[in-house]
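FIELD: query
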Amino acid sequence: MLNNLKYIDVAVDLPVYSTFTYIAPENLSDGSLTGKRVAVPFGQRKATGYVLCESEYSSEYDNKEIKSIFDVLDETPLFPPSMVPFFKWISDYYIFPLGTVIKTALPGGLNSCEIAKFSITPAGKETLDENRISSLEKRVLSLLENSPASVKKLCTKLNENVSGALLVSMEKRGWVAREKEIKSGKTKARLESYICLSGCRMPDGKLSLSRKKVIDCLESYGELSFKRLKEQIPSAAKAVKALEEKGYLVSTKRPVYRDPFGEEIEPDSAPVPTHEQENVISNVLNFLGKGFSPFLLNGVTGSGKTEVYMKLASAAIDRGYSVLVLVPEIALISQIEKRFRARFGECVAILHSGLSSGEKFDQWNRITDGRISITIGARSAVFAPLSNIGLIVVDEEHDSSYKQEGGLRYNARDLAVVRAKLENCIVLLGSATPSLQSHQNVLSKKFSGLTLTKRVENRMMPEVSIVDLKDNRDNRGVRRFFSQELIDGIKNTLVRKEQVLLFLNRRGFAGFPVCSVCGEAVKCKNCDISLTLHKAENSYKCHYCGYTKTAASNCSKCGSSAIQLLGLGTEKVEAAVKSLFPKARVARMDADTTIRKGSVLNILKDLNEHNIDILIGTQMVVKGHDYPNITLVGIICADLSLAFPDFRACERTFQLLAQVAGRAGRGDLKGRVILQTYNPDHFTILAAKKQDFKSFYQKEILFRKDLDYPPFSKMIMIRLSGKDKKKTHECAIALGKCCNELKAENKSFQKSVIVLGPVEASVTKIAGRYRWQILLKGHSFNPIQQFARKIIFEKAKKICGKDTSIFIDVDPYFMM
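FIELD: result
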């Protein structure tokens, strides 16, 4: 009897790092359980778990008390068994609980949660008649007499705060009992009613007009959705109910697909590839179906990398494989998704955070059901539940948006490579400005390098001219950041009925408002950062925590109203452009103007339909978008990111400038770029001018090697934050001491781990929390990972209490 039991390995959705074995009772174990969620007992509580694998009886279970699961929460698996090694790898590499890794991977709204409900006991009922209880206790017991309730329901019904302490006290006195239950996720399939005739003989008597219309309609169409029936017959509701009660109609519920795509797309035909494209495609296809093969495609802007992706995807699908395509920004997904749908039709799914939970749920199910061949999405799509993957594409692989900064701090580009290795398939990273890490992988023969050196249809690369902004320092007003060359360039472009793109990677109107009396900056009360004035909202705003204060606010130090608006943002550029070119149609594309769903698409549509003459934007305008009629790109100030206290500052600046310059001249007309800078001789600026990645790499890699930074080392950041400045400081110092002691007592760590810090973060306070960090560096990853594990699992809990949060950032991208 014992040998017939099914044992399952479960990752629990709690901050625990081990997996746990449970018994699946016979009545709950029909079919495969791998990939499904289960409700399990965990200590004194119920928890959601994810089934990783199943096993038969083993003698090792004899001496263990193995509990049974409560329930299976899914009819079909949420992910295929092939993804289990992928989840385990992520958990191990990023030092993150496996159950939480899987929860992160799944669409939001699916996951269950545990809630406590309270019910009245017989002793509680007796107490109701006594006068010795408080008014609130009496009201709580009276409410519980009707039915059990959660704390939230008690507070809502009584319109009063019912504290946990009060309920614990009542529980100890035996008046109430606590029960815990698993509450299922909010997102489910959308069900719609379908109506059809039951087949029963209709009554001989006379039918009302509305009932006759319903029957005639169903006889014509057969089965109809209730929604469609009401469109045909607005008064159908009462008639349908009456006919259904008499047995003449049958109503059934069916799941309805929530379509996130919108308008239909006209099919296209594949163009003939260029000679360079054909070489790239044939080189990659030689490895299709032959195991793990990583490639880096370095293609200049406008060289047709997307067409290469589609040709490869077509070949993979023809051979029975599925395809995953990652893009860095939601705004870019729409453009690439339309091209793929035009080529491949309805076998395309999308996954990104801009979808509603219901849309994401439906897309996820289409993928798990095997109805989808191609999945396109932002970084979270790396977890798409695809089976039999033949090709993974990472477009704009250099982009920082692939790095997740909260919760599980993964890099989707790196995970794409890992998943390709585990799935034994091709992974193709593409960019006009590859990351130094990926280029170094080509040089060390870990990746194969591919190149596209020419734009399609032999279009010319834009002509780039550099303007020294130091020559404008004596000018006043807008002339300080609008050189005469840029003004003339815009004027001539508008005369030719062509379009202009102006780039500044800072939103708002003024990024550094200061008091002209005492010199105090207008700062956020929660963060150690200056507020930015947003004129459209008439308020100062913090770009870290969202704190706002009215633009009429006086200086917090001296009370003066004389606030000087220093600094520059896209709002100020927009105001300047409108004053210089009052007849031009101007639009702005940044985080402030693209909050609403569909706003990015509307701006891009207006641009393509030539309803915009001048587009002003931040980095979201540069990421792979194709603007055929933009012939002039003006970079207002190229130096904003050069001075960041981060070893990747030059790399990011080069990538940003080269990418934005590449937006010019992508149509039939030649493009021009005017690059304004205070550092015209900086090697990063000169390399961006020439679109010369190799010359930039050759200089930048020397600095990286001298300072022993990636790609010549691996890094793990230990980050601490707390609301109490003193306690956070003390915790950071104590943890730093532990790091040095651990290194001193272990000879292998002395040679393999470098400990830097603890130091305050560059931005010392964000959202009311003070921030410290310790950086671990080493030439080999395993030693620094082992070091970090010992610190986190053995030392941190003893040093840092509830007041200070500590977390690990493996391969940190932002050092501030």
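FIELD: remark
The chain has a mean pLDDT of 88.
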